[in-house]
């Protein structure tokens, strides 16, 4: 392993000095920069001789700020430009939130590292005048800002005294819209993103799975690389957190199976623990129709490394058998929900959302 890494790091230039610059692509938002810097710092710690350069770029998702996310739809909105830069060799790796990465990556790319998951839950950020309240105690007809169909569907059903409206923009923009106007009583954001921004103190309430199940991959960072770039793949693979990898393979397999079967782009939601228990659910847009099931598998782990992708993830250091088991769990759970009518719920949800 070290032989390989050093071969890659030690690149002789004309002057005989060590120089191999690894370029790291990122979006320009503050959250994206923080996430990228945290991964770059870890790489520098593990490979002190490595020279890293951060390349920041805007993506389509950053430019279209006035349309509901669910309308402009594709998850690749935030990742396409970065993948183009990877393809053109302008950058060597890209740091993403795993939940923003489609479950099927374009050919030639793979997720070379999934880092240890932070708090995967969603959180309520309250307007300053409502501090101390919860979703339950907010006044009748209070407006909650979220562009996530997943969050709105679950919360509408549970907190029927509240109204839900789209809110767009990066985290800084959203907090500003919340604090400086009277449009929203609260907004819903991922606890992980708030934590990375240093805004934990704005969290009024963390939503457990009984209130709002989190999205596939939420709270974990992923490093996307060219799948043929064995040196970079080998280098970033030390960042993998085995438990997070297995959980996220199960989650992504679940979502991919639903998406492939239905060709819908709706988030399904779930939570996992080891030994792998996977709870998955699908919801109609207003949450009135839903299906939720839990399945489990024991992930045995004796098999050897292999460079096989599991829902886009390459994790050579994690036993292939365990990854297979996690992927099967996700697919089986999706099949179970489909057999109980998930297809009908998601098809209607999709039609209604398209017509909004
Ligand atoms: C995806 C969704 C959202 C992001 C949809 C969902 C939230 C959109 C919104 C797929 N990507 O979760 O149902 O609130 O309008 C995103 C955030 C993070 C990664 C911000 C957030 C940070 C947390 C993480 C946007 N992507 O969800 O509050 O790394 O998991």
Counting DSSP H or I runs of 4 or more residues, the number of helices is 12
- Class by alpha and beta content: alpha/beta
Helical fraction: 25-40%
Cα-to-Cα separation, first versus last residue: 53 Å
Structure ligands = ligand DPM
Number of strands: 15
Give the integer mean of the pLDDT values: 85
Read across the widest sheet, the strand sequence of neighbours is 2-1-3-10-4
Q: What's the main sheet like? A: 5 strands, mixed
| Low-confidence runs | 1-19, 68-74, 263-267
Overall geometric form: globular
Q: Order of SSEs, N→C?
A: HEHEHHHEEEEHEHEHEEHHEEEEEHH
Strand-residue proportion: 15-25%
Q: Taking Cα atoms only, what radius of gyration do you get, to the nearest Å?
A: 21 Å
InterPro entries: HemC (IPR000860), Porphobilin_deaminase_N (IPR022417), Porphobilinogen_deaminase_C_sf (IPR036803)
Protein name: hydroxymethylbilane synthase
Cofactor: dipyrromethane
Domain Porphobilinogen deaminase N-terminal: 22-233
Structure, briefly:
This is hydroxymethylbilane synthase. The chain has 356 residues and is α/β, with parallel strands linked by helices.
What does this structure look like?
By secondary structure, the chain is an alpha/beta fold. Helix content is 37%, strand content 21%. The protein has helices at residues 2-9, 30-46, 60-63, 69-72, 80-87, 149-158, 171-180, 191-197, 230-236, 242-262, 320-339, 342-355; strands at 21-27, 51-57, 93-97, 109-114, 122-126, 143-145, 163-165, 186-190, 203-207, 221-226, 269-273, 277-283, 290-296, 309-310, 313-314. It has a 5-stranded mixed beta sheet, with helices on both faces. A 5-stranded mixed beta sheet has the order 7-6-8-5-9, sandwiched between helices. Helix 10 (242-262) runs parallel beside helix 11 (320-339). The N and C termini lie far apart (53 Å). Mean pLDDT is 85; it is low at 1-19, 68-74 and 263-267. Bound molecules: ligand DPM. Ligand DPM is lined by residues 69, 75, 97, 99-100, 146-148, 150-151, 189-190, 192-193, 215, 218-219, 267. Belongs to the HMBS family.
